[in-house]
Each structure stands twice: as C-alpha cells, then as structure tokens.
GNAT family N-acetyltransferase
Amino acid sequence: MIRKAVENDLPAVLEILRDTRAEMASYGNDQWNDDYPQAADFLADIAQGSLWLLEEDGAPLAFVCLNGVQPEEYAAVNWQFAGAPLVLHRMAVSPAARRRGVGSRVMAFAEERARAQGLHCIRSDTYSINDKMNRLFTRCGYRQAGTMHFKGRPLLFCCYEKQV
C-alpha cells in the first residue's frame, strides 16, 4: 500500500534514509550526505502533502516526494515533453527491500498520480554515479533528457522524463 506520509512516519523515513546513505557511501556515491536530505526536508514534504510511503504488512519499505516543483537547473535541460510535469524527488527503497520490485511499484504509483492530476509527464534527476537509480529510470521507460550540475556537486546529474 502507498499512502501519504504523516509526521509520525518521520523516524521510519529517516531510517530508510540512513540505510540508503550508508549503502551509497559503500560504493562511493555521495549524492545524499549529511547536508542533504535532512529531516526538515521530509517534514516540509509531509506538511505540503507530497511525501508518500510504501508499506508492506505495516513495514515502511520506500518513500518518494511527488510535486510540481522543478529545480531552477532544469531550465537548461532539453526536455521533450511540454506542459507542467509531476516531479519526482527524494526517492529511496530500503536496502533490505531491494530486488523485490518495490522501486518499480513506486515509479508506477508516480505515473498514476500524474495521470490523476491531469499531468502528462514526469521529470526527475539522479547523480550520474547512482547506477541503481539510473537503471530504474531506464527499466521503467524513462528517457534521458540531458545532464546538469547542482551547485556544490562535482559530478553531473542525469535528467529523465516520461510521458504518461
């Protein structure tokens, strides 16, 4: 089941975040570090109703933020699909829940949310060395629209979009 997260879910979200950061660090990916994301980011997502939690038998397995906020860096990307997008931010699947289709379920949910809101495309980005997320985007039928830099990050971010 996927549902909107509430403040009481913050400890579970932060646990998934902690485990995901540790796994990323184990293969040299510093996309998420002590600076980003932080608890305040998730509390803001919850307050705006944009943080979603995937649970199985009451156990939180993944989270994602879905809204219409595009980073200013997106302006330089050669997007193919016009119109207001649903933007996928801060997605993570608990390392303990990997290889069970959880990530694909979250991505399918994002597509359902976009259609329910009358939106025709989804946009997102991930660090160029985040092989797992880059593969997930490709596996779910997303097109790489280009690359960009975020301030303070040494490597490129790959930008993806999908028409829904």
